[in-house]
Amino acid sequence: MPGSSNKTYSRPPLRPRPLSSRVTAVLASVARSFSKHPVLAAMAGAAAALVFAFLTVESTLRGVTNAILTGYAITTVALAAAATLLSRFAHREELLNHRKLRRLSRTDALTGLANWKSLDAALTAKWGIARRKGVPLSVILVDIDHFKRFNDTLGHEIGDDVLITVANCIAAIIAVTGGFVARYGGDEFGVVLGNRSPEKVLSVASTIRRRVQDLQIQTHGTRQGCLTVSVGCATCEPLHMSSADELKEAADLQLNEAKAAGRNRVRAATLSADAPAPTLEVSP
């Protein structure tokens, strides 16, 4: 029809009444039908009240149960997240502790220098590099003269202070010239130098001997009256030698010869596969 609207109207869907309301309404209707019978009406009313109370409690319990389940789910997720974070933290701590233990296992506890394990590892690594590049490699061994006598006379505490002082002195020199320094034994220190000429190695060794004597650490029963060191060093081209141990043994031999010659001196050798090792000596 003209002027008529095409709009359609629909009722919103009816929501079902709660079960408690429906049951209560039925029981209330039954109670009214028994209005002429007070006892039956009272019984019906009581039944309606009991059902309402039960359904109310049941509805409340269902809400509590849902709340508990929701809380349990949230708690489970939170605990899982916390467990993941704790696991990552524990793993990180384990890595840090492992690195710390590894560092400590390669460090001398008294002087803070690398220890003999680190020196051997550095020598092996630098040996491979020098062999591959065809450049020389050198080892310097430093031994404190008469340290046992000094230690026994003045005590281990002062002896430890002396070791630390000598270690710092050598480390300062190597920090300038380049190289790897370690405490190799009780009163012995080792240095690895890569790609240095024999003359440069001898110069570094002589500097170590002179600087330690210049510390003027007083001793008794020695010719100089102060702490000194003996130094042995050896240089070779790994391409012509069999192993790094051979180089280290050659430096140790030079050290022993320096001590046998009167101590407080440097002896150096250049190793060659074709010729005997010439020996140089620097004494005060």
Automatic annotation (TrEMBL):
Pfam families: GGDEF
Transmembrane segments: 39-57, 69-90
Keyword Chaperone on entry: no
Reaction(s) catalysed by this chain's protein: 2 GTP = 3',3'-c-di-GMP + 2 diphosphate
Top-level taxonomic group: Bacteria
SUPFAM superfamilies assigned to the protein according to its UniProt record, in alphabetical order: Nucleotide cyclase
Keywords, ordered alphabetically: Membrane, Transmembrane, Transmembrane helix
Stated name of the protein: diguanylate cyclase
Organism from which the protein derives: Paraburkholderia franconis
